[in-house]
Design brief:
This protein has about 170 residues and is of the alpha/beta class. The chain has a six-stranded parallel sheet, with helices on both faces. α1 packs across α2, α1 runs parallel beside α7 and α3 runs parallel beside α5. The two termini are about 25 Å apart.
Length: about 170
């Protein structure tokens, strides 16, 4: 299985059936698989905080949800995480496509790419960097289990080393 198929299977194995995402070419490989699979309800959001709201609403009615976004948009959802998800103990796994890393061609992506993990630290949210397919299934499944057991959001940082990155 490639990285996108592995993530899809891990979501299924952990009863995550709703996925909200902000469209991005680097995560399109996985969101396309999710959209084509009738197990998933996939919702395209216009902004990251909207995706967080959709996932929080799904959890409120008993459905596990995940969010896919790009690191450059992660800053848009900090308030939703800090004022809704963290105090309300809403577990949302966030798959964050990391920009500003190895092979980055767009200088505008670098600052938020570098700031994403420190912001997660300040919020007290765990994160895991995914940069190889080796044991990816264990990493993703383990992170999803932790997310729901701890009832708090967490991030899975998808690096260009995992998915090939964006091309200029």
């Amino acid at each position: 299985m490639n990285w996108a198929e592995t993530i899809t299977q891990s979501l299924k194995d952990n009863d995550v059936s709703l996925v909200a995402y902000v469209p991005d070419i680097s995560i399109h490989q996985v969101t396309k698989i999710l959209q084509d699979d009738p197990y998933f309800h996939v919702v395209s959001a216009t902004r990251e905080e909207e995706a967080i709201g959709i996932a929080a609403g799904a959890y409120a009615v008993g459905r596990n949800a995940a969010v896919f976004m790009q690191s450059s948009g992660f800053g848009n959802c900090i308030n939703a995480l800090a004022s809704l998800c963290i105090p309300s103990r809403i577990p949302i796994p966030m798959f964050i496509n990391m920009r500003g890393e190895v092979g980055e061609f767009n200088i505008a992506q670098v600052a938020m790419g570098r700031a994403t993990r420190p912001i997660l630290d300040v919020l007290g949210l765990p994160y895991y960097t995914l940069d190889t397919v080796d044991r990816l299934d264990q990493q993703v499944s383990g992170a999803l289990q932790l997310c729901y057991a701890s009832r708090q959001p967490l991030a899975l940082c998808l690096t260009p080393m995992l998915h090939g990155g964006k091309i200029a």
